[in-house]
Every structure is written in structure tokens, then in C-alpha cells.
Amino acid sequence: MLYLLDTADVRAIARCIDLFPLAGVTTNPTLVAREKRPLLDLLTEIRSIIGDRAMLHAQVMAPDAETMFREAARLCDRFGPTLYPKLPVTQQGLKAIRLLADAGFSVTATAIAAPQQALLAARAGASFTAPYVNRIDNNSGDGAGVVAQMVHLFSAFSLPTRVLAASFKNVQQVHAVAMAGAHAATMSPDLLDKVLAHPLTDSGVAGFNKDWAAAFGSGTTILDLIPAAREPAGQRELATTEKPS
Predict the structure, then answer these.
(1) H or E element at residue 94
(2) Domain limits at 204?
(3) Are residues 156 and 217 part of one domain?
(4) Residue 90, exposed/middle/buried by CB under 10 A (0-12, 13-18, 19+)?
């Protein structure tokens, strides 16, 4: 499962990209509006932080398919082939997904709440489908179950579309969609920190540090205890090039 970061906070993005094996960043209109910055400046800075190879998902805002198409094309033209325009699974959004897919664009279908919405988006040519896991749970549904059904449908009908699970409130939801076979999950920086953290890990590391300090001194590392090997100039090259006679 790929991990993505769901935020438009450039400081959080820079921190997490440095620490975690992330495939990219997802944004939405709410996250972007929260930053109170010009959109072009914000997306340009995000792209500069994550690099050209990482995915960047950004949502279009027009109500009609034709303008959605133009918005998506503008985003891709500006931010490269790893920009994934996000389009909602409305009638106009579905039409725009089909138009964009036919034109060769990679598209993310978003705001998904039911497996059949995802299947329609996949048939229209979406590269990713983003179900809102916590919102489904909060409406007497089963978010992870919806993800599992989506994965099954795409496999059953040999569709290349992937499930990008979104909208999480706790670590168990993230684990549940991973067990359901989600291809990717996007989450807030705070939740990503919690996915990695565990009190047993913390206590284990603390015990190692205590025992090491008692034996070798506090703050001591391997570099302090084992000198660097100093081979004569050219010895390493000779060892790799010489062949037995």
C-alpha cells in the first residue's frame, strides 16, 4: 500500500517527506483554503518540496464537465504528468473523467461513498478512486468494507484503477483499509505520526539506550567505538579488478 500525505501545509509536507516513504501529497479545496495563500504559489511550493516524481493530487472546482476538463489540463500543464486532477463522482464529474482519460490524463475520482460510484469512475477511466472512509463510518456504513468491495470489483473486471483510501480519524481505520487491499491511503501528518508510533517501540528503544549508556557512556555511538578502516590508496580498486590465475 502506498502512503500519501493529506495536507497543504508546506512545513508539514517538508517534515514528512524527509522522514517517511511517501508516494506523494493529496490536497482538497478545504485544505488549500486553510493556508490562505495564492493557489499557484502554494502548489508550486508543494511541488518543489516533493519533487517531480511524487504524485500531487489537486481538485478542480468548476460545475460543468467542459470547464473541469480545462481546469485539469491547466493543472497538468503547469505541474507535470504526476499531477492527478481530482474530480468528484457527480454526473458532470464522471463525464469529465471520461474526457480526460480519453485525452491521456491520469485522474483521481474523489468524494466516493459507495462501490458502484467507484466502478462507474473506473469504467470512465479514472486512475485512482478515493473513498471517504471515516465519513462512510459516520453515516452507519463500513468504510473498510466499501474499500474491500472496490478492490474486489476492480480485480473481478480486470480494471487497472486503484483505490486511494481517504478520510481517516484513527490508526485502526488505516490498518483496516490496508487489510482490505487498498492500493494507497492518504492521511494527515498527525495521523501518519500515530501510524508509526507505538509505546512498546518507545519502551524498547529506551531500554536499549539505557543499557548501552551503562556500558559505553551516554551519547556514544558506533562511530566512537570502531575506527574507520583506512585502506591504502588503490587497494579497494585492485581487490575488485584482480582475477585469480
Answers:
(1) helix 91-102
(2) 199-241
(3) no
(4) middle
Catalytic residue among 86, 95, 169, 194: 86
Are 147 and 206 within one domain?
no
Q: Are residues 122 and 173 in the same domain?
A: yes
Domain count along the chain? 2
Are 232 and 148 members of one domain? no
pLDDT in tens, the chain (245 residues): 999 999 999 999 999 999 999 999 999 999 999 999 999 999 999 999 999 999 999 999 999 999 999 999 999 999 999 999 999 999 999 999 999 999 999 999 999 999 999 999 999 999 999 999 999 999 999 999 999 999 999 999 999 999 999 999 999 999 999 999 999 999 999 999 999 999 999 999 999 999 999 999 999 999 999 999 876 666 555 555 555 44
CA-based radius of gyration for the chain: 23
- Among this protein's residues, is 210 annotated catalytic? no
Q: Residues 56, 149: one domain?
A: yes
